[in-house]
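TL;DR need structure tokens for one chain.
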Amino acid sequence: MVDDEVGFAQRVTLDGNVLRAGSRASNSVPILTRLDDPEIRGRRPTGLGCPVHTGKFTQLDGEGIAFQETGADGSGFFYVSGSHGCSRNSGEERPSQFILARIPYDAATDRFGAVVRTWRLSEALHTAAILGPRFGHPLDNTGGDGGLDIEGIAVDRDRLLVGFRAPNIDGRAFILPVPLGPLFATEWAVVPEQPIELPLERQEGIRDLASMADGRVLVLTGPAPDKADVQPRLMAFDPRIGAASLVEIAKLPAPESNGAKYEGVTFLEQGGGAVSVVIVQDGPSNGRPTRYQFSIPHRSP
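>> reply
TL;DR here they are.
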């Protein structure tokens, strides 16, 4: 798991509807190092339009985490992303929020390897169609059509799928596919693909993404602006087909706590026309993780 107010990722165990984190010393993976770390790939983004500029390098504003399985034994890479946007309330530009990290995982030893960090996702955001002009600009807390910030990521083969809470432009939310290789290289240009435009409600944004066993991607949605009156939903689409494959799985009940929001979804298993997930919230203690099982249409051939 990743938190929005610290600089590390953390291994947790799901016990029923309880997340057990264990000790930080044995279960955390440091993501942030220091602002002038020469090992961070690429160049720090500059010239952004955030109202307040700082050199803070203590909060990742971690919003996305995804796993890419590369070995038959379950080994692979975890990817952790900061929001890559101006802070929603203060408007601060914190360099630490523009980091993407890759964490090797060895299933045979159950250990994490050396973390590789990069600034280069910003290159993709800056040049992306539709989204590029909004990169590094203040977030619009009223209409949802200003600035941009990452809220979820998923891996589709050799691509990172980047989902955005904002902007929502005339009822369209966006997922940006970016080739993974160049993000952690130094000699290749980072060239994003065309954004996938998901038809949602106005002011409805993406709150998280999660890959499913059959290759589809779960999309957790909710309000793009903080106080938008939006029905949270769980949806799914096939990234090989695009927005035309988007289906609604379920409308979610309103969060019980005042001001709480659905924040993250984790895929558990799939079979028999159903999908099992865990959904967490921003606001309640411990994230109030809740297991759900929903019917889901079969994937189109």
